[in-house]
Amino acid sequence: MSKRTKFTTISPLPPSITRAVVVEFLHNHQEMIDLNPLVKERHCIKPPSHATPEEFHCTWYSLTDRISYLPGGLANGDVTYTCAFHDLPNGIQTHCYAPAGLNIRDKWTLNGSLPGEPIEPVELGLGAPITGLYIREDVDMKCNIVMTNFVKKTLKKSHAALIERLKVKAQ
User: What predicted TM-score, i.e. pTM, was given to this entire model?
Assistant: First the structure.
């Protein structure tokens, strides 16, 4: 039995990071992949047979993550999956197809305003900063109900680390 879960994460960025640097990073698929602490291997591939017509012209990768199933590294394993990358003017969309029916659609967008720019209206209820730039990550995932909490926790932790690595790299 699968469960669909949606969540949004807001990551404020330091004032020293420019809009151009963030968009360039989000559009650099290999760098974005390499900054994810879970990914241990990546290969650019042709669209797989399960690619939808809409995703056929995306950039595709085969990715292998190193996953820790139990605390303290007591049980680790590798998971290989395919992922489509599609650039947007202010971000990127990804769609990952993993084993056990795990399906993750992720949209990363750059939002907010820098000093001197008109203040961008902020969506209510997200905890987004009123001023400054931030990355908004919207996740829509579907997986086995038993795996949902583990996958969500692992995804949030690895993507938070990716954002922190971006902040360090960009300064």
Answer: 0.91
